[in-house]
Amino acid sequence: MLVSKIIEKLDIPHEEGQWVEIRSLSFTAMEEASDNKQERDLRQVKRMGGDVFEAIMRSSKQADSSGKGDESATAKVATVDSYDKETLLVKAIVAWSYDGKPTMDRIRDLDSRTAAWLSREVFERNKPDTEETVGND
After folding, report:
1. Domain for residue 50, yes or no?
2. What beta strand segments (E) does 5-122 contain?
3. What's the total number of domains in the chain?
4. How many angstroms separate the CA atoms of 32 and 30, rounded?
């Protein structure tokens, strides 16, 4: 299915009379949001310094050796926190009831409550299938 023309209007629940229109996201847009989140997380870890990075890596290796990090044993489930919120919003928002068009600067000007709510809504409509849902088709 081609998704770029699928648009949905959502009422903003905590802002009476305000709405936003979002488009469905392609698989490449979702991958970009995931990649951007990973890059942002990596930059943050690097800023923490080498000692913190080494501790995180040691912890990760210990989890892998204990089987907790084994993807075959534990299904990896994507959450909204696995995706860059700004990328989700910029790629999805096509129109809104606020003044002006939804430009990058205006999207960045959203309050945190609205941005969090809307990024969850975008994610829920575009999240990848899990192994369980793929098998049920």
Report:
1. no
2. 7-11, 19-23, 93-96
3. 1
4. 5
